[in-house]
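just leaving the lab so this will be short. below you get a single protein, a line of residues and a line of whole numbers that encode the local backbone shape. id like you to explain what the token line says about the fold, in plain words if possible. thanks a lot i owe you, the record is right below:

…
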Amino acid sequence: MGSFSIWHWLIVLVVVLLLFGRGKIPELMGDVAKGIKNFRKGMGDEEDADNAKTVEHKADEKTEKS
């Protein structure tokens, strides 16, 4: 009762295909992929900015000690 059989998943697949159509599902997956790429790019940009601040901060410490 707690687990789904292959027939349950096939029925769910048919319902999803009927609701969204064959052309809409790849379009949705493409949008998800673009979102993931933009998220990764944003995280990389944030890390680069943090690293740049760290390098500048270290340069300031060296000049203060001298």
About this structure: Residues 22-66 form one domain. The CA atoms of residues 15 and 34 lie 26 Å apart.
